Amino acid sequence: MTVGTAEDADGLSPHGEAPGAAHGAADAFDPGAAAGRATDAILRDTLHGTARGVVVDSPPGAGKSTLVVRAALELAAAGRPLMVVAQTNAQVDDLVQRLAEKEPGLPVGRLHSSDADPYDKALDDLPQVRKSAKAADLAGLPVVISTAAKWAHVSVDEPWRHAIVDEAYQMRSDALLAVAGLFERALFVGDPGQLDPFAIVGSEQWAGLSYDPSASAVSTLLAHNPDLPQHRLPVSWRLPATAAPLVSHAFYPFTPFRSGTGHGDRSLAFAVPSDGSGPDRVIDEAAASGWGLLELPARHTPRTDPEAVRAVAAVVRRLLDRGGATTSERAPEAAPLTADRIAVGTAHRDQAAAVRAALAALGVTEVVVDTANRLQGREYDVTVVLHPLSGRPDATAFHLETGRLCVLASRHRHACIVICRAGVSDLLDDHPSTEPVQLGVTVKFPDGWEANHAVLAHLAEHRVPWQP
Amino acid sequence: MSLIATLGRMEAVRAGQAQPAATVCHRRLSARPLVFVPLTTAGEAGAPLGALVGTDPDAPRLLVVAQPRDRDLRFAFLAELADVVLPYIDGFAADVEAAERTETDPETGKRIKVEAELCADAPQLIVPSRAGIDFVRLLGRSMRFRRTAEQDPETPYPAPPRVPLLGRWLTHFGERARVPGSSLLLALTDVLGLHWTTGQSSLEDQHLGALLAWIAPPDGLSGARAALRAELARGADDQLLCPPAGPATDPAFDNRLLAPAIERYDRARTALAAAEDGLEADDRLGDLTNAEKAVRDLVESRTLPTWQAVWRGLDLLRELPEGAHVADRWTRDRWSFTAHRDRVAAGEPPQPRRDDAVTAANKLASREREQARLDAQEALDDPLVMAGRRLAGEAFAGEVVDVVMAYSESKRPSPRPLITVRTADRPHLGERAKVYRSLDGRPQTAEFVGTQDAGDDAVLVLRIVDKMGRGKEPEAGSVPERGDRLCFTLFEHDQRGGAKLPDPEHTPWTHGGPPGEEAAVAETADPVTEEDVL
After folding, report:
1. Does residue B513 sit at the A interface (CB-CB below 8 Å)?
2. Closest to B361 (Cβ–Cβ): which among A149, A213, A302?
3. Rg of the Cα trace of chain B?
4. Which chain A residue's Cα is nearest to B429?
5. What tens digit of pLDDT does each residue of B387-431 get?
6. B348 and B199 in one domain?
7. Could you tell me which residues belong to the region Disordered (chain B) (predicted)?
8. B321 and B444: one domain?
């Protein structure tokens, strides 16, 4: 690896060096400028390029949504009718709100399903947003936004001149097939490190085909259009300086990124001192170092491991009780660490439900508890994670999936606390990856096995053993 | 593995016998299935060694390839197989009933109903294990692009008539078997595993002998011991007492019995070819016949136990009544069979080697819908399956303890009754989660309103939102009454149709664009390679 400098660190080439990846260049690295150059190049290709598609890879918290909003506004300003494809209704509503915030004068169409409560009621307060379940009602608006599932039911005589596909790495190839006829050109934005799309039935018979319907939309797109310009956002504004190196090293080894903030820029402190218990000690460790591992004794458990679930709830309860305060580059004065700034992440829905029940028993109801799939794209100050492999007797492909751990380990602005049974690294050693190698399928690096080991090795330095 | 499956396995270990995992049979079992027990040759993909096939448990037809590497013998085997399978399939093609099918009108683009033929019943292929399904697929792939002398007089090594047709049918069966809940081609181990939980791993359940040993252990033996015996016990000749269900054979059988027998057959054949006069030839023909018979006997000895095990397994399954939704799913199998019958009759080319982008996406979407529908239907048909979903927090059963009439706040108020259900289950209900119950076979939706604390039980308040008629007052019987015992699910009972994908001719640029002109030409036969004429 050559030493990167601020000059060559434009973050544009997918094969290029990361901006300031080498330590020597750290002083010279200006994250704002690097990110700005990347954004400018993306917008140049999107607005003035000749390729039918532009692909942007974005690590966690690198300003993907900001980019989408900016590109949408510039395309609208250039008079090009634009459709935006996102993957979930929550993402669509979020984008509509961001657009409305940034450009209150711009009429926006929100195409929604005909179910009950199809969109966030907050959109009703925005006069410039027109909502309809029929695409024809929104014809002529400069920007129309909906989910891929809804767009798939739309048919048009005249395709849109431009589209933005958000979270394109989480979109399945068959979903893109259903909507690709609606636009002439598109900007594809997404995070390659997060969870791959999945199918609930076997799809091995198509493995290796360039248009494997269960693969991600981007892999099909690039397989058929290898010459499309690809860009990369080089700076994570979300992840703190304590987290970016680990996440970058474990999940993006060939396309490293940097944190937009330095080590002293953020802090997390608690008014109430530690009572010496496991939860309090791990909270203090995480506040100081950005990471904490609360390790329970080794044991094989059912998925909803009652002790681990109680430990998660206890940590959340103490986070709230100890009067936490965060300072960051956004606001110099300390902001209280409130329930809406904390999230709990799990691998399975029944685990999330069990944690919710345990939290409710401790009187905590405001904290978001969800699976990795549903936490994608969200941001919190502190996250508490029930490790996907905790207490398991085996390590299946589901639990080893790189993206799952990556999502769980990259939602936080300040600190991440992992709750786990001891013995996971032995479990990993007992279960090397055994997935069959499919001809024609690009092997994804790093594999979950390696990424899990990298994260565990780092967490081991912040370990607090605890007997519940 | 679900929690209830884990519990079931532990109970099976304790009881020494497989435990029921279902109270009804979730797959259609044809009254006259065609059982196919194939064996393959080690070391060469898709080289059949022999098979037992037939519809009568007492009269299987034995087909053997005495020298599996000989292409002529292999084709003779396939032709013989076609002589058994195709008449069986044809037996279902003629008996049709009138039905309706929705099609897209090419002029208006609207969905319209058209009259169509639907075969009254469909053929059913049963193989012993999952590997048997793969073998059916492999045979189909190896045959469907062959050309007969009639189709293509110029090609060397023409296939016997009907062999390519058999390939197309086996391909169809193999592809249909990938659709969740279909019953055209079943692997017995899968079906048995669906209805019984054994005390061994699901990998071990793929051994038909071991699986049956758990389900119906011989007198005086526990399931675990009987299964171990089925897997490992060898006789004095060092051969497995319970030969594997195939298609792969036991290496000890290959090395000690099969290889010498085939060698003897080869020698007899060479000797016959070298015979100098008629008398000598007669003699040597006798040797050859004996050598061939020896291979036949060996193949029969390894397939017959499996053949009998398959029918025993079918008898066990037939003791279960059929699930309520099975007939529905079988109707879709009949549609699938009828459609392929029509494609063959219309002279369409064989199924392509690879699906195009649109076909692949359509197949994946429809299989995902079928899977979700199957999961729901199995639970609705079977309280034991539903118990598993309840244990997983995906459903709950309980008693209605209160009903309060309420109305929606619109210009024309509609009934929105609130019911209170007391349940010992622990459903994972989120805010305003939707739950469904079956009301005369149709799903009625309710919304989760809130929960009251009541000790060990949960008391849930639900608001019923549909299936109560158009009037201000709900139709009789559409609202639960106090004391009713109900089961609500968090999963939907039926699946909506997916989005319409573009026609293959309009494949978008992201997926390679429209197919070129070469795609319009039917795929040619597999070229003959050096390996084909070893």
Report:
1. yes
2. A213
3. 28
4. A353
5. 999 998 899 999 999 999 999 888 888 899 999 999 999 888 877
6. yes
7. 494-534
8. no
